[in-house]
# Entry
Amino acid sequence: MKKKVVVGMSGGVDSSVAAYLLKEQGYDVIGVTMQIWQEQDQCTVSEEGGCCGLSAVEDARRVAETLDIPYYVMNFRSEFQKAVIDYFVSEYERAYTPNPCIACNRYVKWESLLQRSLEIGADYIATGHYARIDRLPNGRYAIRNSVTAQKDQTYALYNLTQDQLSHTLMPVGEYEKPEIREIAAKVGLKVAGKRDSQDICFVPDHDYAGFICRETGKVPVPGNFVDEEGHIIGQHKGLIHYTIGQRKGLGITADTPLFVKELRPETNEVVICKSESLFSKTCFVENVNYMSVDKLEGPTETFGKVRYSHRGADCVIEPAENGKIKVTFNEPQRAMTPGQAAVFYDGEHILCGGTIIK
# Structure
C-alpha cells in the first residue's frame, strides 16, 4: 500500500516540484495550501511570490491539476495569528527582533498542518525547503544541509521536533535551484519561472513599525538616542523602529557612520555606537531545541550562525543556567541580536539552536 503524503503547496516552484518528485517516487500525494493570511490586499502575493492569499491558491491548484493530484485549501488563520503575528508584535514590543518564519515553520507549517494531515490518514507531510533529513546512528532525526549552499534553508528549520521530523519529507534538498526550475519546465508546470519570495509575507511593504501600530493600536513613544557613555545625542521615534546593527534612518549627523548597539525598553533609550563596538565573541541562547543530540554533555566545538544571512563561524557552546547555553565564538561576530535565532551545526547536521537573549 502506498504511503500517503500531504505536500504544503505555496504556489511556488519549489513546493510544486516537491509534489511532482514524491509522486514519481510512488507516494500517494495530496496537495494542500494553508490559508494563513486574512486580507489579500495586505499580502500582495501575486507580486511578492509569497505563500498565502488567493493568487497562491490559484497557482497551486493549477499545479495540482497538471500533476493530477487531489488538492485542498485548509484554513490556518487563527493558528497563524497566534503563533506568528502575535509573537512578532510582542517580541518587537519588548525590544527583540523576531524571526516570524521560524515560528511559522514550527507552529503552523509543521505542528498544525502535521496534526491535521495525520488526522486524515497521511503518513507524512512534505515541503519545498532546501534541506534534508537524516536518521543518525544514535536514533535521532536531524536536519542536514541541502546540496546547494546558496539556497540552504536549514537555519529556519532548527526548531522542529523529533516527532515532526519523523513524519517529514524534503525531496528538494537533493537538488540545485536551476535543476528544480528545469524539472518544473520539463513537466509543464507554469510556475517554473516564478520568482522566489524574500520578505515577511504579512508585511510586504517592509514597514514593520506601521504594521505593529495597526495591530496594537498603540503609538510608539519617542525617547533618547544615547552614546555608549550615556550622553544624549538625539531623539528616536520609538523602539519598534530600530534593530541592532541598523545604520539607515537614524537621522543623526556624524563624522563617522553610527549604528544601533542596544535597545533599552526600561529607559526607552537607543544606544548608538561606531562599527567596531558592534562586535562581540559571546552571547547567551534560551529556548534551546536539540536535534542531533538530546543534550549537551559539556563544552562542545561547533559551527554557529546568528542570523539567516550569516556565513557562520567556529565557536564553543556549553550548558548555562536554566537550560540556556553560552556561546563563545573564536572570532568576534557583528551585531548578535536578541530575538534572532542562533543555530549550531555538527558537520552537515543541525546540532541545536535557540533564541539569542544577550
